[in-house]
Fold this sequence. Notes:
The chain is mainly α. It contains 4 helices and no strands. The protein has helices at 2-30, 38-58, 63-87, 99-108. The protein is elongated, with a radius of gyration of 24 Å. The two termini are 32 Å apart.
Amino acid sequence: PKDTEQHQFFKEKASSSATSLIKARYKLATLQHSVIPIPMLVTIVLWLTCIFMSLGFCSPKNTTALISEYVGALCAAAAILLITELDNPFTGVIQISKEPAAMALRAIGAP
């Protein structure tokens, strides 16, 4: 009897956790507007542009300095791309699969 009570408890707990996870995922999927404010994104891009321009003006004109500035600018651009891509997880280049949520729904017998 104790094993059945524990089993029932864990089954209800897993079902409750799966349901709340699916609700959170659905809420995330229906969120259509961007969470990142456009003025903040523009400010960051302008700020980084000023930083890399000032580095370019003040650095020595050799290949090593030029390559390191390009690599730094590329890293900053990649970080901004990742932030904007992950703002909408179900669209874009990097996407979250919908299959795990569908499998969980099938497992708990939800319509």
